[in-house]
Write a structure and sequence with these properties.
Elements lengths: L14 E5 L16 H15 L4 E5 L16 H11 L3 E2 L7 H9 L4 E3 L7 H4 L3 H8 L4 E4 L20 E4 L1 H15 L5 E5 L8 H7 L5 E4 L4 H7 L14 H13 L3 E4 L3 E4 L9 E3 L7 E5 L1 H11 L4 E5 L12 H12 L4 E4 L2 H9 L8 E2 L3 H8 L5 H4 L5
Parallel strand pairs: 1-2, 1-5, 2-4, 3-4, 5-6, 7-8, 7-13, 8-9, 13-14, 14-15
Antiparallel strand pairs: 10-11, 10-12
Helix pairs in contact: 1-2, 8-9, 10-11
This protein binds adenosine monophosphate.
The site of adenosine monophosphate has 18 residues, from strand 12 and helix 12.
Length: about 400
């Protein structure tokens, strides 16, 4: 990596500002339902503490409070969980900048501080320079370990780097290592699995990756726009009518590039989404019916392609996996991918990571990204502003 990493910093006796991604899911009682993002940040925090930093000052957002204080989006529950995982007290001030915060940090015995939700202030997402300067004034050096927000040029990911020496944390480094390797130098055959609701979200990815991949497997809601472009009947399945032409042109480009595009060929369909009992498996979708999962023949075909792969990147569930009756395709694919040996398997964040966790397949996957949007943008070939802004080596 051409950017400084936390290993390159001398943090002894220094105050270290670390941007983490503690945007964890909370239930109605404010219990954290998945603390993976907190656990993934521990190596950097523990390393900095071991190097005898004077203070570790953590900053994060949680949810989308849109510049207002929202009581149930405070970071205090995250602070409690962090205390448990670290085995030491964490100071949680009720704001993220200002004299009171500075004094509270100076007066505290705690080595670790978790400041309040950055997005309680509009200045964060506006990348306001004054706000970034105030954050920077709390510390001597900056570490970005929030891969999941590195595709955003916000005050805490971009602005702050203008005022402090800035390095990548271990999680950021790991994300770039796996995703970067897959993009730049994948072991072949390299297969991408795409799913999810929308074609429009994945066009840039497909165009960027076409020259690099052997096969692209397409399932989920986005498959129907491709099938429509081939003149197939898709009933009332998800369709982006204005993207049919784009889908057709992608299929042509793939053919020219000798990339094998594998589309779903049988489907679990329903008439009424809320009535899973009437679901059936079909090869041709009739008018009035809607595809909600891939069928058994498609699962077999997808697995056959995966069985020869050396690198697999998966982004997007292949069915409505949140509903048990429509989840078999995504579950079988997750189980199969996690059972493969000698394959580098990478799962994009967001829904796909949630699906893999739901089906207890995390163990067998090489790398599960903590950033849905950020991993998508890397695969689209974009430069992530939060990474580009770090200090060069
Ligand atoms: P995305 O946000 O684009 O990654 O889409 C994820 C969502 O796509 C999940 O919530 C799935 O339920 C949904 N999805 C996957 N397959 C289908 C389908 N065949 N029909 C409708 N929604 C789907």
């Amino acid at each position: 990596m051409s950017k400084l990493t936390v290993r390159d910093l001398d943090v002894k006796g220094k105050k270290v500002l670390i941007r983490v991604d503690f945007n964890v899911p909370l239930d109605e009682q404010l219990h954290i339902t998945d603390d993976r993002r907190i656990r993934e940040a521990l190596p950097t925090i523990q390393y900095v503490l071991k190097q005898k930093a004077a203070k570790v000052i953590l900053i994060s957002h949680l949810g989308r409070p849109d510049g207002q204080v929202v009581e149930n989006q405070r970071l205090a529950p995250v602070g409690k969980q962090l205390e448990k995982l670290l085995g030491e007290k964490v100071l949680c001030p009720k704001d993220c900048i200002g004299e009171d915060v500075k004094q509270a940090i100076a007066a505290s015995k705690e080595r670790v501080v978790l400041l309040e939700n950055l997005r309680f202030r509009k200045a964060e997402t506006k990348n306001d320079p004054e706000f970034a300067k105030s954050l920077a004034s709390l510390a001597d050096v900056f570490v970005n370990d929030a891969f999941g927000t590195s595709h955003r040029a916000h005050a805490s990911t971009h602005g702050v780097t203008q005022y402090l020496k800035s390095a990548a944390g271990f999680l950021l480094e790991k994300e770039i290592k796996y995703l970067g390797q897959a993009i730049d130098n994948p072991a072949k055959p390299f297969v991408i699995i795409l799913g999810g609701a929308k074609v429009s979200d994945k066009i840039a990815l497909i165009e960027n990756m076409l020259p690099k991949v052997s096969s692209i497997i397409i399932g989920g809601g986005m498959a129907y726009t491709f099938l429509k472009s081939q003149g197939k009947e898709i009933g009332t399945s998800l369709l982006e009518a204005e993207k049919v032409e784009t889908a057709r042109s992608i299929l042509e480009k793939a053919k020219a590039a000798k990339v094998n595009i594998v589309l779903s060929s049988d489907f679990v369909v329903v008439k009424d989404f809320k009535n899973p009992a009437e679901r059936k498996i079909v090869k041709e979708i009739e008018p009035g019916w809607s595809g909600v999962d891939i069928g058994p023949e498609t699962r077999k075909a997808f697995k056959a392609v995966l069985s020869t792969a050396k690198t697999v990147v998966w982004n997007g569930p292949v069915g409505v996996f949140e509903v048990k009756e429509y989840s078999d395709g995504t579950r079988e694919l997750a189980e199969y991918l996690s059972s493969l040996k000698g394959v580098t398997s990478i799962v994009g964040g967001g829904d796909t990571a949630a699906a893999v966790a739901k089906f207890n397949c995390e163990q067998g996957i090489t790398h599960i990204s903590t950033g849905g949007g950020a991993s998508l943008e890397l695969l689209e070939g974009k430069v992530l502003p939060g990474i580009a802004a770090l200090t060069d080596k």
